[in-house]
């Protein structure tokens, strides 16, 4: 199952860079209840839909807080695609769909000479109100503001589902554990079963 793959497999190269200077401060975890799920995202029909689905399903991601500008988001959950940069889980909705949770995963450390390199390193620093911007292949932009930041266990795939009445983008990366969002240690480097998943949800504005 591709959703399980993206949540369970985030391989990182330990030889990429020194972790000197990175903080090991532990951050309190905000636990949330699983949402009430809606049906799968649906494209709005006819004149109701202000967005026309582009032919190219790839997206462009900008997160000013992370220093990420115009990074490609592939509609592909394979490890190879993730190693190149952020990916959208194919089962997740697109921003031009109603009630979509556009679910995007990326590496903390990643691979040198690719967009994945340190792409989501500072994801734990995101705060409510921070901006996330997606752009589709036709140049249409979709602006979101961070509403929730929390961590889950690797098996908690409910976070990939749409939430009734909301249009969202979700950013996800690995953490050392559910409790430790900051440390770049062995669990982050191998994305093992004890690794946490940091989830940053932003809602359309």
Structural write-up:
- The structure is a single chain.
- The chain is mainly beta.
- It has a single domain (2-11, 57-204), classed as Sortase, Chain: A, CATH 2.40.260.10.
- It contains 3 helices and 8 strands; from the N terminus they run αββαβββββαβ.
- The chain has helices at residues 2-8, 79-84, 186-190, and strands at residues 59-63, 68-73, 87-88, 101-105, 131-135, 141-152, 168-175, 196-204.
- A hairpin with a 4-residue loop joins strand 1 (59-63) and strand 2 (68-73).
- The two termini are 32 Å apart.
Q: Give the CATH H-level superfamily.
A: Sortase
- Any idea what the radius of gyration is? 16 Å
Tell me, rounded to a whole number, the average pLDDT: 82
CATH fold naming? Sortase, Chain: A
The poorly predicted ranges are 1-28, 36-47
Main sheet specs: 8 strands, mixed
Number of strands: 8
The end-to-end distance, rounded to whole angstroms, is: 32 Å
Q: If classified by CATH, what would the architecture be?
A: Beta Barrel
- What is the succession of H and E elements? HEEHEEEEEHE
Give, in spatial order, the strands making up the sheet with the most strands: 2-1-5-6-8-7-4-3
Please report which band the strand proportion falls in: under 5%, 5-15%, 15-25%, 25-35%, 35-45% or over 45%: 25-35%
- Per CATH, the class reads Mainly Beta
The share of residues in helices is under 10%
CA-based shape: globular
Tally the helices.
3
The overall number of domains is 1
Structural class: mainly beta
């Amino acid at each position: 199952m591709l959703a399980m793959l993206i949540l369970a497999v985030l391989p990182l190269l330990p030889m990429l860079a020194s972790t000197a200077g990175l903080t090991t401060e532990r951050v309190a975890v905000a636990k949330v209840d699983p949402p009430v799920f809606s049906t799968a995202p649906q494209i709005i029909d006819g004149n109701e839909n202000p967005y026309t689905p582009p032919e190219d399903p790839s997206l462009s991601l900008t997160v000013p807080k992370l220093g990420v500008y115009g990074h490609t988001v592939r509609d592909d959950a394979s490890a190879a695609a993730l190693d190149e940069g952020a990916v959208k889980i194919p089962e997740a909705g697109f921003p031009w769909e109603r009630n979509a949770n556009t679910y995007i995963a990326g590496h903390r450390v990643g691979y040198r000479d690719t967009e994945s390199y340190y792409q989501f390193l500072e994801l734990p620093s995101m705060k409510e109100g921070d901006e996330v911007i997606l752009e589709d292949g036709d140049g249409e932009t979709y602006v979101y503001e961070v509403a929730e930041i929390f961590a889950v266990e690797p098996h908690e795939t409910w976070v990939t589902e749409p939430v009734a009445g909301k249009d969202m983008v979700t950013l996800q990366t690995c953490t050392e554990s559910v409790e430790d969002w900051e440390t770049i240690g062995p669990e982050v480097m191998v994305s093992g079963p004890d690794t946490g998943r940091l989830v940053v949800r932003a809602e359309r504005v």
